Amino acid sequence: MCVVCGCAESGDAATKSHGHDHDHGHDHGHAHGHHHVQVDARHGDLHFGAGAARVSVPGMSQARTVKLEADILGENRRIAQQNRRHFEAHGVTALNLLSSPGSGKTTLLCATIEALKQRAPGVAVAVIEGDQQTSFDADRIRATGAPAIQVNTGKGCHLDAPMVAEAFGQLHHHDHHHHGHSSHGAPGSLLFIENVGNLVCPALWDLGEAAKVVVLSVTEGEDKPLKYPDMFAAAELMVLNKVDLLPHLRFDVQRCIDMARRVNPTLAVIQLSATTGEGMQAWLDWLLQEAAPEQDGPAALRARVAMLEAELAQARAALEG
Fold this sequence. Notes:
The chain is of the alpha/beta class. Helices cover 43% and strands 14% of the residues. It contains eleven helices and nine strands. The strands form two sheets. The protein has a seven-stranded parallel beta sheet with strand order 5-4-6-3-7-8-9, sandwiched between helices. The chain has a two-stranded antiparallel ribbon with strand order 1-2. The longest helix has 28 residues, at 62-89. The chain starts with a helix and ends with a helix. The model is unreliable at 6-32 and 176-185 (pLDDT under 50).
């Protein structure tokens, strides 16, 4: 699990976890250190996620692993809550898009942005793109006219709440610099956070989003929800993408949905093709329902106050100018 194996900022723990710097060998036919493993008596299969921590880290006990994960994720959740309040104040609905590499997230986002221009031109859209390297995906988003900030994580396998906070700040800085006002200050705005392609680690990390959306391509196999249950358990919606390829594949759609709902009985499912547009209207319906501002309540009031304060600041700047 990435929380305790080095890609999080857990310097000493990461070093201790992987500190294997000595000159004598080990008999790798036997478990050693603090490995926690369950052995299947019938086939000899090894299950390293059977302990309390649901992960085995060399040299670290299950109790220590659980505590370390709680400490790191606890700090992340604190910042995620700040993000959530910030998004609400700006009338922004943030959605965390998760999938394995190659599921078609970026293609789906590009098609979604173009479709929203026709269906709901008043809805402002921005994107935070997560990858280990390159700005390829952010460049594709920018080509649609929507603002995008690329976040490269280096060796990291997921986005975290501080990264998203920094990126959201950059989006607003960019808006003010180029347009003189924020295009994301009105209720009903959408912020898509395209996470690093990975069906494991990103499931754990709250970014302050309103919902997690897992994108599963029909080219990946219908058993993915049971192989990677944490991801599908954390999601509110599963987008089954590339359905235009179904005639060419051995993919049982209903079996896939059934497996996903064994993990998460309340999981909503939309089948679509970002290439042909099949199912796109159902996807837009879901997005616009998520983005619809509440007519009453604290979130709507905070968004309205934030918008009025921004307008007042602009008016003062104009008078002083």
